[in-house]
Amino acid sequence: MSEELQLHEQGEKIFVSIRLRPLQDKARNRICDWECANNDTIVFKNSLPERSMFPAAYTFDRVFDSESNTIQVYEEGAKHIALSVLEASIFAYGQTSSGKTYTMRGITEYAVSDIYDCIERQEERDFVVKFCAMEIYNEAVRDLLSPDSYPLRVLDDPERGTVVEKLTEVVLRDRDHLHELLTICEAQRQIGETALNETSSRSHQILRLTIESSAREYAGAGNSSILAASVNFVDLAGSERASQTSAAGTRLKEGCHINRSLLTLGTVIRKLSKGRTGHVPYRDSKLTRILQNALGGNARTAIICTMSPERIHVEQSRNTLLFAKCAREVRTNAQVNLIMSDKALVKQLQRELARLEKEMRSLGSASVKGDTAGVLREKEKLIGQ
Ligand code: ADP
Ligand code: MG
């Protein structure tokens, strides 16, 4: 609990890891410029003179060399976030074919398995697990669990924040049910890929698991509160799009090649990394709107940045490292989510009302200054609720 309090007060940094993919077969004889010096530092080995202006070593929370397997990446780079019983998000970021999908597939599988293991061990609580899946391509949001491919609207809900309208949410029977649904998502994503060239490298995929639990002894009595946790698994579009577009501003005007969501994600991360001052443009893209909480709000976040080791990719790899460095400066603020049952809510509101009435009585005797009037209005609003 003290750890939780600390989290609340200071905020928590995004946990950032780097994963180096193995050299691909056809590239076996090519040169790899990167080396993991230890658990948290990746080094650019080659000292080409024109590159000397760049740093040679980069330190993160964790780095994984090409020998590491996905379970290791999961255990050390994502598990503690995925199982934190809060709003959690695991992102994969990197250029096309650097291993994002490969990594996220494994991570999702291991996390789901651990989550179900946890659920089965907790006999004193009842659990409801829900799943939804979406893809964002060219700023259109598509439901990966529905055969219809029409784009869904993103709306602002006063209570729930940003929501995707009509997104299918399935209540899971068991872990096998989830595996079935993951297969459907993959198939849906592939349909998109054949229909539109390059979709896979330009679309973002968000899988979302929501776990609600309540104490079993109160079940049905209507007076227990529900603890809600969720995990987002985010497989981002190839990051080369973002650096291309930001490098060559002209592309922006062409319109068709922009990945607005990825570009905005970069801007949001850059802004957040400099502290929470000024305007953060979450609303500029669908991805950042949907994941606003995961990026700068009530959430715990891990980002796994995947890198292709080949020399031809050195510029993209460096861009990935710069993004990763920025992401590491971002602080999120995770809090436990409680959904109150009606009875618990009424009780809490009654207590709050009594407290406010008392406060107002004592305020009433004091003279009402400008800001006090504001406070009073605020309290009246609360009582109204
Ligand atoms: P991305 O999603 O970033 O475009 P993929 O995950 O599709 O990239 O990976 C590209 C190719 O490299 C795939 O064939 C994948 O199986 C392979 N690959 C990626 N990472 C690894 C790894 N760590 N070990 C072995 N093969 C990998
Ligand atoms: Mg991919």
Summarize the structure in words:
The protein has 385 residues and is of the alpha+beta class. Mean pLDDT is 81; it is low at 1-9 and 245-257. Helix 7 (240-247) crosses helix 9 (260-273) and helix 13 (342-365) packs antiparallel against helix 14 (370-384). The chain has two domains: 10-340, Kinesin (3-Layer(aba) Sandwich); 344-383. The strands form four sheets. Strands 2, 6, 7, 8, 9, 12, 13, 14, 15 and 17 form a ten-stranded mixed β-sheet that branches. A three-stranded antiparallel β-sheet has the order 3-4-5, with no helix packed on it. A two-stranded antiparallel sheet has the order 1-16. The longest helix has 24 residues, at 342-365. Helix content is 41%, strand content 24%. The site of magnesium ion (MG) has 4 residues, from helix 4.
